[in-house]
Amino acid sequence: MERSWSWRVAIVVAVTLASLYQLVPSWHYFKLAPEVRNTDAYEKSVPRWAPNPKKHLNLGLDLQGGIHLAMGVDVDKAVKAKVARRADEIASWLKEKKVAFDGCASSADGAKVECRTSDARALEASVSDGYGGEMYAPSGAPVGTVQFAFMDKVVQEFRGKAVEQAEKTIRNRIDKWGVTEPDIKRKGVNQVQIQLPGFKDPQKAKELLGRTAQLEFRICDDENEALDALRSQLPACPETRDGLTLPLPESGCWTVENVELPSGAQRTNTIVAANDRTQLAKVIADKVKPVVDSSKTAVGVGKSFVGEGPFRKPYYRTFLMRSKVELTGDYIADARASYDQAAIGGGKPIVTFSMSAEGARLMEKLTTENVKRRMATVLDDMVETAPYIQSTISSNGQITLGGGKSFEEMNDEANEVALVLKAGALPAPVTIFEERTVGATLGPELVRKGTLAALVGLGVVLVFMLLYYRASGLIADVALVLNGVLVLAVMSMLGSTLTLPGIAGFVLTLGMAVDANVLINERIREELRGGKGTKQAVQLGYDKVFWTIVDAHVTTLSAAVVLMNYGTGPVRGFAVTLIIGLLASMFTSIVVTRVMMEYFTRHETARLSV
Question: Using an 8 Å Cβ cutoff, are 489 and 526 in contact?
Answer without folding.
Answer: no
